[in-house]
Design brief:
By secondary structure, this protein is mainly alpha-helical. It is built from 6 helices and 2 strands, in the order ααααββαα. The C terminus is likely disordered.
Length: 165
């Protein structure tokens, strides 16, 4: 049976409340490097697994290429990212974490874990695992919904201005 509208409305309000609280707290979260702003975290995590092109990073973090390019320049300048040649296309470059960037990611993961451990002091481990499961499921469903919307919107033309914001 599908979710009732009243439940969806209540969940929507709760999600918006949590997003606003998290946004207001992001500047109080532990910082791991003076040059790394919280807005850089998604980019750093995106290249932590393997080197990627700027366009692939932008797509994976749901941002535009120009914004990611500015962030990349900043992070390269501070020694957190490296640009390496693309072995499949000699004209292109890939982004990779530098050793310092990898260290920042490792500290960030530990720091976030400790921070969330403090936030969740009244939770049992089972409750936290269940919440993480549902949060992952919600994120997966959200991404799938976004993909369906983008497919149904079709390519953007002069008469079709369905653009993602």
């Amino acid at each position: 049976m599908p979710v009732e509208l009243s439940t969806a409305e209540a969940m929507s309000n709760t999600v918006i409340r949590v997003i606003k609280i998290m946004a207001s707290m992001r500047h109080h979260a532990p910082r791991q490097h003076a040059a790394v702003d919280p807005s850089h975290y998604a980019l750093l995590f995106s290249v932590s697994g393997e080197p990627r092109r700027v366009s692939a990073v932008a797509e994976s973090i749901h941002s535009d290429v120009s914004t990611v390019s500015r962030q990349v320049s900043h992070l390269v300048q501070h020694g957190l990212l490296e640009k390496i040649g693309d072995p499949d296309d000699g004209r292109a470059q890939l982004l990779s974490l530098s050793p310092m960037g990898r260290e920042v990611i490792e500290k960030l993961i530990r720091g976030r874990g400790e921070w969330f451990e403090q936030i969740l002091t009244s939770w049992s481990d089972d409750d936290a695992q269940t919440f993480e499961h549902y949060l992952t499921r919600f994120g997966d469903d959200l991404e799938a919904f976004k993909a369906r919307i983008l497919v149904s919107a079709g390519p953007v033309t002069s008469t079709n201005h369905n653009q993602e914001s």
